[in-house]
Specification:
The complex is a heterodimer of chains A (about 180) and B (about 280).
Chain A lengths: L1 H12 L10 H4 E4 L2 H34 L8 H28 L4 H5 L2 E5 L8 H17 L3 H8 L6 H6 L1 E7 L1
Antiparallel strand pairs in A: 1-3, 2-3
Chain B lengths: L20 E3 L2 E2 L7 H40 L7 H34 L4 H5 L2 E5 L7 H9 L1 H6 L1 H10 L6 H6 L1 E5 L1 H6 L7 H11 L6 H17 L6 H11 L13 H17 L7
Antiparallel strand pairs in B: 1-2, 3-4
Classes of the chains: A mainly alpha (about 180), B mainly alpha (about 280).
Chain lengths: ~180, ~280
C-alpha cells in the first residue's frame, strides 16, 4: 500500500511526464456498506413494482378476455394466470437487470446512490447471464435463510453479501 | 451542429426532426430525449418520492395516533366522546399530511429543476430540462411545467400523444412552460469511467486510437489493474508495470509524443479494457 502511494506521489511530483488527474470516482472507491445498499434496494423495489404493475394488469385483462368469463377465475385458471404473470415478470426482470447491470453497472436505485456492481476480480460489469443468476437465483437463496445472506454485509470487512460471494461480485461505492 | 442557412435568413426554418430548435430558426444540435429514458427517469423519481412518502406516512401514523389520542384526552368534552374526537383529529392529520405530500411532490420537481435543471432520476440518464429562448429556467416555467404534470403523467395518454406528435418531443407541461428535455450521452457516460476521467479518456482515445485487445490479455490485465488502481490493494514492482506497458503497447499508437506518465498510460489502457469488456451489448464510443 505504501509503495502504491509512493508510486503515485513520485508520479505527481515529477515535472516532465504528464500525469492525469484521478477521476472523482477513484478518489475513494470502496465497498459499499449496508445502509446505502438497503436504500438502493428499497428504491429498486419500488421501481420494479411500478414497472411490473402495468404488465400484470395487461396480463390479467388479456387472460380474462381470452377465457371469456368476466368473473374472477379460480382453480386451474388462477394458477395459469399467476404463472404467466410470473413468467412475464421474470422476462422483464431479466432484460431490465441485465441491460442496466451490463451498461451502467447497476439498476437506477444503485446509480442514484453512486453504487456500482462489478466482478470482484476484474472490475468489469456483469453479463446478462451472471446478472440473472445473481439477482433472481442467488438473492433468492440469500433471502430464504431469513435474510442472513443480506445481513452478512454488516459483518464482513469486504462488505460482501451471500449472493456476492456466490457469483463473485462486489458492490462499490464512489465517494468524494 | 448545422449552420444557419444562408438563403432567406428571415424565413423561419423548420428544424429537422432530430435536431431541436432552441431559438427559432437556429438549430443548436441538442439531441432530444428518448421517450423510454424520460419514462424511466420519471419512474425513478417517482420511486424516490414514493419511498420518502412511505416513510413519512409511517412516521405520521405513529406520531399522529399518539398526538390524536393525547389531544383528545386533554380536550375531551365528555368521557364518551374521546375516541371519536381522536379519530377526527387523526383524519385531520392525515388530510393535512396528504396535502403536504402533494405539495412536496411538486416541490421536489420544482426545486431540482429550478436549481439544477435535472432531478436525480433524470441525472442518471443524462437528461436536462432546457428553457427555450432563455439562458436559465425561471421559477414560473418550473411551476407551470409541474402543474401540467397532473395531466401528463397521471392521465398518461395526452402526455404520450404530445410527446409523439410535437415536433420537439415536448409533453404538455413542456409546451406550457416553453422547455425541452434534452439528452446528453456524454454526461450519461461520465459516471461510467472507473480508472480515468471522461474528458481525459476521450482525448487520449482520439490520439492513441486503441485497437481491440484479445479477451485473454484483457482479462489478465484487468485482474491486475482493478486491484491495483481501483481498490488499491495490490503491489506492483516497476518491472511489472513496465512489462504490462510493453505487452499492451502494440495495440495503441505511439504515445511518446503525448509525454504521458506510465501510470496514466496504464490507467487509460485499463479504462479501455474495462469499457470494451463492460459494454459488449452496445458497441458505442
Amino acid at each position: 500500500m505504501s509503495q502504491n502511494v509512493s508510486n503515485i506521489l513520485q508520479a505527481t511530483a515529477s515535472a516532465g511526464p504528464r500525469n492525469l488527474d484521478l477521476p472523482q470516482s477513484q478518489a475513494s472507491t470502496q465497498p459499499a456498506g449496508f445502509g446505502v445498499r438497503f436504500c438502493a434496494v428499497f428504491v429498486d423495489a419500488i421501481v420494479l413494482t411500478l414497472i411490473k404493475l402495468p404488465v400484470s394488469i395487461m396480463v390479467v385483462i388479456t387472460l380474462r378476455l381470452i377465457s371469456g368469463t368476466g368473473a374472477k377465475p379460480a382453480g386451474m385458471e388462477l394458477i395459469a394466470e399467476r404463472m404467466i404473470d410470473m413468467i412475464a415478470f421474470i422476462g422483464i426482470a431479466y432484460n431490465y437487470f441485465g441491460w442496466f447491470y451490463l451498461n451502467k453497472g447497476g439498476t437506477p436505485g444503485k446509480l442514484l446512490f453512486g453504487l456500482r456492481v462489478v466482478d470482484s476480480e476484474t472490475g468489469t460489469h456483469l453479463t446478462y447471464g451472471r446478472t440473472f443468476r445473481r439477482e433472481i437465483l442467488a438473492k433468492l437463496v440469500s433471502g430464504v435463510i431469513f435474510c442472513i445472506g443480506y445481513l452478512m454485509v454488516l459483518f464482513r470487512k469486504d462488505r460482501k453479501a451471500l449472493h456476492d460471494l456466490m457469483i463473485g461480485t462486489q458492490v462499490l461505492r464512489q465517494g468524494k | 451542429m448545422s449552420a444557419i442557412p444562408a438563403e432567406n435568413p428571415r424565413r423561419e426554418v423548420q428544424p429537422a426532426r432530430d435536431r431541436l430548435a432552441v431559438y427559432s430558426g437556429l438549430s443548436i444540435g441538442l439531441t432530444p430525449a428518448p421517450l423510454i429514458k424520460r419514462a424511466l427517469a420519471y419512474v425513478v423519481d417517482g420511486a424516490i418520492l414514493t419511498g420518502c412518502l412511505y416513510a413519512l406516512f409511517f412516521l405520521v401514523t405513529i406520531a399522529g395516533t399518539i398526538t390524536a389520542f393525547g389531544l383528545a384526552v386533554v380536550f375531551r368534552v365528555n368521557h364518551l366522546a374521546t375516541k371519536n374526537l381522536a379519530h377526527e383529529i387523526l383524519i385531520a392529520i392525515y388530510v393535512v399530511t396528504a396535502i403536504a405530500a402533494l405539495l412536496a411532490i411538486d416541490g421536489y420537481f420544482i426545486y431540482f429543476e429550478y436549481r439544477k435543471g435535472t432531478t436525480p432520476g433524470k441525472r442518471i440518464f443524462g437528461l436536462r430540462v432546457v428553457p427555450l429562448g432563455r439562458a436559465r429556467l425561471s421559477l414560473g416555467q418550473c411551476v407551470r411545467r409541474e402543474l401540467f404534470r397532473y395531466v401528463d403523467c397521471v392521465l398518461i395518454v395526452p402526455g404520450l400523444l404530445s410527446v409523439c406528435l410535437s415536433r420537439q418531443r415536448q409533453r404538455i407541461g413542456d409546451l406550457a412552460a416553453g422547455t425541452l428535455v434534452t439528452h446528453s450521452p456524454r454526461s450519461e457516460r461520465k459516471r461510467d469511467f472507473l480508472y480515468i476521467r471522461a474528458e481525459d479518456y476521450l482525448w487520449l482515445a482520439e490520439s492513441l486510437e486503441p485497437r481491440p485487445i484479445p479477451a485473454e490479455l484483457r482479462e489478465r490485465f484487468l485482474r491486475f489493474a482493478y486491484p491495483y488502481f481501483v481498490l488499491r490493494q495490490a503491489q506492483a514492482s516497476p518491472a511489472e508495470l513496465a512489462s504490462w506497458e510493453s505487452s499492451l503497447r502494440p495495440f495503441i499508437r505511439d504515445p511518446s509524443s503525448l509525454q504521458l506518465n506510465q501510470v496514466s498510460l496504464l490507467r487509460f489502457l485499463a479504462e479501455y479494457c474495462f469499457q470494451t469488456a463492460s459494454h459488449q451489448a452496445t458497441e458505442g464510443s
